[in-house]
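Hey team,

Filing this mostly as a record. A colleague (T.K.) asked me to run one chain through the structure pipeline before their review meeting, and I want the input and output archived in the tracker in case anyone asks later how it was produced. No errors, nothing strange. Just documentation.

Input sequence:
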Amino acid sequence: MDYFVKIGNNLSKVSSRNIEYAKEIDKDNNNILDYNEIKDFLIKNDDLKIVNTGQGKKIIYEKRIIREFSDFLTEKSIETQNFIRDYERIIESMKELQTKYPDRVFLQTIGKTFEGRDIVVIKVSKKNDRRQDKKSLLITGLHHAREWATGEAALNVVEKLLANYDTDENIKNLLDNIDIYVIPVVNPDGYEYSLKQSRWWRKNRKVFNDSVGVDLNRNYYTEKNPELYRTKGDRPDSIFDDYGASDRPYSDTYRGPYGASEEEIKAIQDFVNSNNINTVIDLHSYGNMILFPWGITDKPTIWENIYKEVGNEMNQVAGKKYWVSQAIYLYPTTGSSEDYHQEEGRFNYTIEVGKGFFPSSQKELNQIKEEVLNMTIVFMKNLMNGKIPVSKFLVSS
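Output structure:
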């Protein structure tokens, strides 16, 4: 049976590979997916982001996301893939940096994915600099497979900082005093699948009996507070009490069979703890937002004022177009990077970049990369000058 997406007055046929999506979207069973049906489906899947403004709730970049999803359903080609590096090319670029800057760049494989790909960290630091009090920053991209710009933006930070080390005294000072770690692609399997087979894919590619994939940014877990992964009263055998993530394996926000079940998340948690990482910036798309913990509750952290002050400084250098907010005010999340790192004592932001999942042009991608670079430099300055805390703390009750 054929399905069609209604775009204006035109009908475009849904690809045979996306019929299951169409069946779920077509609520009136007329085989035509109209704007409102697609919108309702994307809201249910947390693909459309709703923020509270002074004028009430607003869906941000609604038309663009619905267009991107409609193009996906009909398998309309996009130009983005011409200027987005696949995983192999990203790893090659990291190795080229190591060759070019052998005294500053160090690569480390910290784990393997379900499909056997390496999870690789690039470290930028002075060789043989073993200062115990040296501050550190981890930047992560591509927890979610379809958020293509985030891997490029993460790697661009080290590419640009290294390129300007010898000519910019401020950059030199930052790199001499802060160790930077970057994992451009947290989710290599999902990223490759999204780039080359089904671009709307979000999760990793772990195979279960009757489903595929876990949302990696719903899989973080700490024994210090298990309720950050699964809230009290949310039972794993029910999908009707889900909060902040889903227990339905087919869901795009499936949290996994248990906390830190996924190799990618186990690798990151082991890495940050064994290397005493102080701070984290986690890149996502979309929405132009600078988000800080908590994502599970509207209770403020002990660093609330610092999060707002530094976030506003970052927003200034990004053209004042980012929304600085506690993450809960976007939507509730459990098992997230931001809450995990907060509980473990790491000051961190989740930055949502761009107006959609797929940059529409090289120009748009370059703008995202420049904004992330400038925001990271502001973050590093505040880390070095002591405004951003680095000491571990006990969570207040």
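Quick notes for T.K.: The longest strand covers residues 105-112. The mean pLDDT is 93.
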